[in-house]
Queue: 2 jobs
Job 1
Amino acid sequence: MNFALAVYGAPYSSQASGSALRFARAATAAGHKIERVFFYHDGVTVANESIVAPQDESDLPTEWTALATEHQFELAVCIAASLKRGVVNETEQQRYETPSATLKQGFEIVGLGQLVDAVINAHRLVTFAA
Amino acid sequence: MTLHVVNKPPSNLAITSCLAVVLPGDVVLLIEHGVYCGSVSVPEGVSMYAMDLDVHARGLDDRIPPNVPLIDDARFVELACEHNPIVTWA
Amino acid sequence: MTSKKILFLLRSPPYAGSQAYETLESLLVTAVFDQEVSVLFADDGVYQLLKEQDPSGIGTRSVGAGLKALSTYDVERVYASTASLEERGVPLGDVDLAVETLDAEQISALIAGQDAVISG
């Protein structure tokens, strides 16, 4: 089975990101494919490289990038949602002259079309909302 | 058959709105705060499950009735394979 | 390109931040991709349909105005829950969009027929 996952909730403010990560881990462990994980609304904030997770909690940004690298799937962060929440890559940082780029390596800034693309190509869409 | 995923407690409309439209053969999966809905009755022909880790986290192990089995992430994935669409009630 | 049946299930009222407008944007993009898009306003989501929304004072874009684009993007399967409208005292006369009202049984059938449901 090929899964598209949508994550709408911010890490540490809701369980959305954590629940989605556990689902993705279980799906890949069972031999399924992840078409893409699409972060939208507040979910984009997991891609902020300045997140410092407490030692006794999950380091969600790092756990996502590790799983995505191991199983070769994309962590897609919606550009419209990310700009307004301060998650910018170098291109956008230069375009809008913000103080610094903040996108964590391993996440990609993409357009909304990539959500639709994932839904079209996957067998299943699972949404993790705030 | 549809998999309905509910992540809000009974004080929220999510479970009520979900159960108003479930069909026999559908599955309702309680995750996150949805596990507080363990005692809500479901229509005939509808199965309900609760995520084990979310139940344990909240100390609800003794408060989920026996007709609501606890499942793990692997079983969640299986349910998602066995059902479509997957509707999140948040 | 594969055309999938994709339902947007909109249950949140507008203007608690950007969520409602962002969901609308994702809906319109999905329509551009030639997918068979349906929209169902249910629970507090029916408040997105009210006429005369004016969020200019709170510094955000109008969801009501944005919904007018649905017909431009050929999104014609636009539904609202009869029960949700009634419970909130929203008669169709207060609704600014051409919607078909659905009862619970019709909503069940709508959901069951989808390839994917995007919640918003």
Note: Chain C touches chain B through 17 residues (CB under 8 Å).
Job 2
Amino acid sequence: MSKFKVNKTYKEINDKIRSGEVVVVTADEIVDIVKEKGPVKAAETVDVVTTATFAPMCSSGAFINFGQSVPTIRASQVWLNNVPAYAGLAAVDCYIGATEACLEDPLNKVWPGEFNYGGGHVIHDLIAGKAVHLKAAGYGTSCYPNRGIEKDIRLSDLRQATLCNPRNGYQNYNCAVNFSNKTIYTYMGTLKPKVGNANYSTSGQLSPLFNDPYYKTIGLGTRIFLGGGEGYVTWHGTQHNPSAERNEKGIPKTPAGTMWVMGDLKQMKPEWIVGVSLRGYGISLAVGMGVPIPILNEEMAQFTAVTDKDIEVQIVDYGNDYPNGINKNYGFATYDELKSGAIVFNGKDVPTVPLSSVAKAREIAEILKDWIQSQKFLLGEPQFTLPTK
Amino acid sequence: MKQMKKVLNFSENIAEEPIIYHLIADYGVRVNILRASIDPGKHGRMFVELAGEDSQLSRGLNYLERTGVQVEPLAQEIQHLTDRCTSCTSCVPHCPTQALDVDRQSWEVSFNPEKCIVCLSCLDVCIYKAMTLTGS
């Protein structure tokens, strides 16, 4: 006997997608449905809730196979538009990391550095169909005698190009402030002195892992929207920490779950994978991601009804604490408060600055909804879900 | 009442004259100083918004030129590249005049060039390079 009143399987939902009868709503829309009808009625009506996020995600990169040359080469060092790629793989494979800076970049020698071009921009340029200049050096072997090649590559000519992001879609992240007396430049953006602003990065109630806080439906094989194409969750992401402290709704109060995601670069669109330059910090990649949550039962309906008011974000000092490994928080702000444009902190109004685009996340949730409704996208049933401890 | 944005260039020999005082007191021009700088060689550059009746403005500008102030139109402009902008809104709190603003329903960022004082703050904080400076 199931403990739920509503019981649906992935197969039943996929059959509904195929027949066009599926009911899909976004994570924004499900909130009022559950409020009005209750979770059981909502679960009977709704089959899938779409979630999404669009924000810089440093732990991103792409595996690229650039094809052999004549004479053949065992590329041991590779540069793409002068950005070093890791070449310790096979003869003509490399991994271009999003945060790698181009060789002539002065980095932070002129402070704060501008970081105009790097791995994230290379990935964006490839997706945009631009030619990227490849330089490779080899040491020469009997089977691979070539010592060096240079050529322009385009995504359409490559045999394989796979986005592989070891950590994306962080379930909750810090709200960053700066207690010091100087402006600081961080991966959370520019932080003005004496708590001049508070920066955060999450799409709140639309964010994937807030809608499935205990990872009941997300795991290896979950099919997702990734950068405008279809991708997959392939593992739990690095730093996945399911045992973070949670509130009464199961929402973690500190950084918790993460997803390892992959997808075919050739399917992606330049508006959903964008190289970014964070002043004084470095290069990153803004990644558009959408995850469908199957409403298998009333519990999932209840989870997806999470609102911005339920989501608490810890306030962390990046001026002194974070760089010194001091684990301390200065209270919590709800995502609802952060979204209002200012929070009250120590009796003072502090402007809040997101790094995540709500407008873009909403667009992705709508696109994914449309894909499912128009039978273009079936749910992937995970082989196993993300670890819960 | 007419309004115009101008760049005023002061040479070193007039750097110590109370020119803006006279422009206001004697010619009735309303002056809003957007940005001002003076280099070690005493050359000054001031971005101003001037407002007043047609006659006040033309007499005022005439006075500036007589005094040796070089008056140029504000040629520098900030442009919002909407195809690069993702409406992340991180520029909004950094904009001192609310030229960059967000509709908190749609979460779309908008840019009103009329309100922009070309302070360049947005250029520093935009990670998508969606704000650019055009002109000289």
Note: The two ends of chain A are 26 Å apart (CA to CA).
